Amino acid sequence: MARADDPGIEALIELMARLPGLGPRSARRAVLALLGRRGQLMAPLAQAMAHVALTAKDCRVCGNISTEELCPICADPARANGEVCVVEDVADLWAMERANAFQGRYHVLGGTLSALDGVGPVELGIPRLVRRVGEEGLTEVILALAATVDGQTTAHYLADALAETPAQITSLAQGVPVGGELDYLDDGTIGAALRARRRF
Amino acid sequence: MARADDPGIEALIELMARLPGLGPRSARRAVLALLGRRGQLMAPLAQAMAHVALTAKDCRVCGNISTEELCPICADPARANGEVCVVEDVADLWAMERANAFQGRYHVLGGTLSALDGVGPVELGIPRLVRRVGEEGLTEVILALAATVDGQTTAHYLADALAETPAQITSLAQGVPVGGELDYLDDGTIGAALRARRRF
Ligand SMILES: [Zn+2]
Ligand SMILES: [Zn+2]
After folding, report:
1. Residue A130 CB neighbours (<10 A)
2. Is B91 among the domain residues?
3. Are residues A27 and A103 both part of a single domain?
4. With pLDDT > 70 as the criterion, what percentage of chain A qualifies?
5. What does this protein do (chains A, B) (predicted)?
6. Which residues in chain B have Cβ-Cβ distances shorter than 8 Å to A72?
């Protein structure tokens, strides 16, 4: 017996199931809930998603993702306190923001140095970060990279690249577990690591 | 310190968090994954969702939800075997289809009888079901309602309403736990209950 599924609904379930945390069964359940609230939830969600898919871009200053040319953090004059926090990706930036412990701006690397994958300093925007020190009068660059081999290799490269600038280089200190990724840490740990930061 | 969130992205996270099985944290993680795959996943998902939100409707024959006027099950001549299975909602219809044990068609009640909520036979399409027996030459109506008080009250009402028709009335037998909802049963249990169905 052939399954008699609606092609449009099945296509939607199949796409939903690709989201992290949603398997085929929970994707089906989510779509059922959407089908029951087509006007109040499904249509607005589709519209919000289309809007973000169309307008989201990398902030040209820091690499954060936002629907504006300049992300809200770079656009906020109150965040120009001379501090820039370097993170691997947007997930880590969001984790820092959730911790609510940092009032400066960011540099999102978008990865770590990897000769094998052809990821060099230019791909990570490191020359652009070095220029920002002079242009924005940065006094401190905080390296908030994971305590992994790749993260620490990249941190050392950054420290060298920034050595000739007037900015002080610091790094997150206690609290970041070895091999641990920032995005999985609780907010308190991130805040403590930030407050106890040390010269790199 | 004010949080510096992108309004478009935050609106999307807030809507995603309303889906069953996704809390605020997993909604954020899902949106991050979408942001990282804007072209390959986010845009197609938004489009599929908008299409379904716009075109999904109740099948005018059986009450199943589909993007066509006539759902794929009612449109498939191979499913016209004289059997109709009565279920409470679309989730139960999907559960029956997953069990892959039934080759007939459906009648989706959309609820159970409830004087308190003003849900009567007409709201559940019961006169329409009675007409289908003659029009489609149905030989059997299988009542696949939950073994709850509301489900069984509705089942008895259905048996009375269909008593004067030539169709045999049966109901799912063993395997449906008392108080259990169909949608949460495993496929094997549903199949066994269907095969062991008895006269109502
Ligand atoms: Zn920015
Ligand atoms: Zn139908």
Report:
1. 19
2. yes
3. no
4. 90
5. May play a role in DNA repair. It seems to be involved in an RecBC-independent recombinational process of DNA repair. It may act with RecF and RecO.
6. 4-6
Give how far Cα B103 sits from Cα of A163, B94, B135, B193, Å. Answer: 73, 13, 19, 15
Q: Is B54 on the interface with A (CB under 8 A)?
A: yes
- Indicate the number of domains in chain A: 2
Asked whether residue B156 is domain-assigned, the answer is yes
CATH number of residue B28's parent domain:
1.10.8.420
**Count, residues in chain A:** 200
Predicted complex: ipTM over 0.85: no
Contacts of A67 (CB under 8 A, 6+ apart): A51, A52, A55, A56, A57, B6, B7, B8, B9
Q: What is the pTM of this model?
A: 0.80
Find chain A residues with C-beta within 8 A of B21's C-beta.
Answer: 21-22, 26, 29-30
Host domain of residue B135: 78-171
Mean pLDDT of chain B: 88
pLDDT tens readout for residues A95-135:
888 888 899 999 999 999 998 899 999 999 999 999 999 99
